[in-house]
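On to our target:
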Amino acid sequence: MNGIAPSRLTRVLIAVIVGVLFAIPLLSTIVFTLRDGDGYSLANWARVFDPTNTQVLTPIWTGLGNSLILAVVTVAIVLLLLLPTMILIELRFPRLGRVFEFAVLLPISIPAIVLVVGLAPIYLQIGRTLGTGTWTLAFAYGITVLPFAYRSIKASMDAVDLSTLAEAARSLGAGWLAVVTRALVPNLRQGLLAASLISVAVVLGEYTIASLLNRQVLQTALVVANKIDPYASAIFTLLSLLFVFILLLLIGRAARSRDGKASS
């Protein structure tokens, strides 16, 4: 197996190539936002964040607020619906594992526009009962993020013997709620954090479903802002990427610090 593993030089070359491929479009976007006639300055950044520039700022702040609410609701759907179902199947109905996995991974093979065609009649009923608020998109986004969240949580489950943990907790008199919240969830922390991060990233970057269902989110707001001021769209795209990157660092740091406390 050691002979199959790539050498250190190969890993470094791959990391450099991937880093360059990611860096080129980011650096190009940054340079674009700094253009000011024949030179470069922060004038475009200052203009975009000028409080009087409501024509650009209003739709973007509205879309960002809606996207953050959607991210919270989508993560709640993943943690409160997907996780208990996966635990139940793992402990009680292991024979249903492959069928459930197929059903959960199916949305990744369906284009977003096809999903919208199927969800449109459902959203007509949702609009009549729950209203047409942007937060209702979380139901569609919950389906979209299922494959990614499932694989993240499943990887953590495969690394832990859930049956033994559950039986040990039950033998000590713990109820099922305590078993899940105090014995199983702490051991699945990294998978849950990864699933939450992926869900947030998908929600912040999704455009097709929101556009076709006529909801205002960050990506649709960026399209509107781009028609008014192309620099504004580029600037807020960079800031959204920076936000996701910082979120990744914070979640990773929190996971490492908690693992360190647990091991000590």
Summary: The chain has a mean pLDDT of 84.
